[in-house]
Design brief:
By secondary structure, this protein is of the alpha/beta class. The protein contains 21 helices and 20 strands. α1 packs across α5 and α7 packs parallel to α8.
């Protein structure tokens, strides 16, 4: 019996029903009896053809339904109810090709564990088991992609199998060792090859731990807990950023309240600036993460050398920094930051005989009110940074307290012909807390419907997520149209692409895409990318 044929049929039939329910604009609701029969059919078929996950999800949903009820589901309510089923359907459909799998959006502060193993069944088992402990897990079978993912996401723990396609685990460790000299990230080797010589080689290559396969789960969990604890203790004990050698975010959180206490005593105003390197992702994409680290380090040292000895600079995270100017009011701090932006823009970086320059933007807030809290002051400065980015970058914008209460609206549009992907993306974006920035979210099944809606021409800042390959209007055509229109500077674009060639990705970036994600994607990885890009819009 060819189960694969029947599995594909069930997946496609499930998508067909969902499309018929949610696509028609005139559809006013779905009777509960239809929902019940739909789930009941999936449960029976999935169990027969060994799709246990779909069977369990549909069975759980059926417990909340009464077949004889006369309820009519509103479409938004039904989308939320069926979200787990839709997400699992997407994962099953892409099972053969997917490299990163996850089903739960973890809190952004949860420990992040990266697992690299070419055994997909092992990845699924370990992911499910570790996420039950409350950790966020990213997984990969491709060592090249995994190394890039490691650089971008900087996990709290790396778990790595020795036997990988194209490149073994020892070579992967060598690739990241230079980076690991700057960041303390515990590394654990797992392998079916458990002899003394292999273990010694693992430790010599930079591994902090080794565990043989088959894995003793109890021992494995205890070791992971210990490494996560070590990482947490290390982070809490260090006040200097490992890469840039300036103060880190933890020290900022300890230091900032003291300035507010001093202000209440002396009434001497001071200023806070949030600064961010412009288009830093393009530096990483073009020249690599290690050279990007060099740019970050040289930027931090430039600011440190250029400010007064009484001023303080902190690395807040990624390419974002915070500067405190004691005894300095708005105008003086703005003037100094403007000078620094100009001076840094003259610095030439050289990579393999190619030269380029980098700029940064700054948001500024002066504390001259004893009722303002540190959290509020930071948000005011962050809001001003958003204004600087919106108005063209490489500039300073200042914020008054009233600006914080003005609700800024950012349009977020999703264009994808797959209803399951559209639904998942809507849920991801809806779950992101942007503070004072309101997200106006809309989804479209093709490009023409998006342009007919008028959203592209309303003049607001716009974050666009678009599928690269669609039957009616290609994603690159959508990108080209918005980037050649009158509001091109208002758009930030994330391209979802199944095209893995460098030429297609290069074309998307050339047309103005700010980032791209190759399908199939994982929910946490995509959420992290969306959050990063959205926060650049603040």
């Amino acid at each position: 019996m060819n189960l694969e044929k029947y599995k594909n049929h069930l997946i496609q039939n499930t998508k067909k029903v969902l499309t018929n329910w949610f696509e028609p604009k005139e559809n006013e609701g779905i009777p509960q009896r239809d929902v019940y029969r739909f789930l009941h059919s999936i449960k029976g078929t999935a169990g027969t053809i060994q799709l246990g996950g779909l069977m369990q999800v549909s069975d759980r949903l059926l417990l909340d339904l009464d077949e004889n009820s006369h309820k009519v589901w509103e479409l938004d309510e039904l989308r939320n109810f069926l979200f787990d089923l839709m997400e699992l359907t997407y994962e099953y459909e892409n099972f053969k090709h997917i490299t990163i799998k996850t089903s739960t959006i973890r809190p952004s502060n949860a420990p992040l564990i990266q697992i690299i193993d070419d055994d997909v069944s092992m990845l699924i088992l370990l992911k499910d088991m570790l996420e039950e402990k409350g950790w966020m897990v990213i997984t990969n079978t491709d060592p090249e992609k995994a190394v890039n993912q490691y650089f971008e996401m900087q996990p709290d723990l790396l778990i790595l199998d020795i036997h990988l396609p194209m490149k073994d685990g020892f070579h992967v460790l060598e690739d990241i060792q230079t980076h690991n000299e700057k960041y303390f990230i515990p590394k654990m080797i797992i392998s079916i090859q458990n002899d003394k010589q292999t273990r010694i080689k693992a430790y010599q290559s930079g591994a902090d731990d080794f565990i043989g396969k088959p894995i003793d789960i109890e021992e494995f969990i205890v070791k992971i807990e210990r490494h996560i604890q070590r990482k947490k203790m290390f982070d809490q004990s260090v006040l200097i950023d490992e890469l840039t050698q300036i103060y880190n975010r933890r020290f900022l959180e300890e230091t900032l309240p003291r300035y507010f206490q001093e202000y209440k005593r002396s009434k001497q105003a001071f200023s806070i600036s949030v600064v961010d390197i412009d288009y830093f992702k393009q530096v990483n994409d073009t020249y690599g993460h290690l050279f990007g680290d060099r740019v970050l380090n040289e930027f931090a040292q430039f600011i440190k050398r250029s400010i007064r000895s009484s001023d303080l600079i902190f690395r807040y995270g990624g390419e974002e920094f915070v500067i405190i100017f004691p005894g300095t009011k708005n105008i003086d701090a703005q003037q100094r930051l403007t000078e620094l932006i100009h001076e840094f823009s003259q610095k030439v970086f050289i990579y393999k005989e190619k030269s380029f320059t980098v700029t940064f933007s700054a948001g500024l807030y002066t504390v001259d009110d004893e009722f303002v809290t540190p959290e509020e002051a930071f948000k005011y400065a962050d809001h001003a940074l958003y204004e600087a980015k919106r108005l063209g970058r490489a500039r300073v914008e200042t914020s008054g307290r009233s600006l914080f209460y003005k609700k800024n609206v950012l349009n977020v549009s999703v264009i994808d012909d797959d209803i399951i992907i559209r639904t998942m993306l809507y849920k991801i974006i809806e779950s992101i807390d942007m503070g004072h920035l309101e997200l106006n979210i809309a989804v479209f099944e093709n490009g023409p419907l998006f342009f007919e809606s008028g959203r592209a021409d309303d003049g607001r800042d716009h974050f666009l997520i678009v599928d690269g390959v669609m039957p009616i209007m290609d994603g690159l055509e959508v990108l080209q149209k918005v980037k050649s229109g009158p509001y091109a500077n208002q758009f930030s674009v994330l391209m979802l692409t199944g095209r893995k060639s460098k030429e297609n990705i290069a074309q998307a970036l050339k047309l103005g895409a700010d980032d791209y994600v190759t399908k199939p994607f994982s929910v946490p990885e995509l959420q992290a990318r969306i959050e990063r890009l959205l926060k650049r819009e603040k």
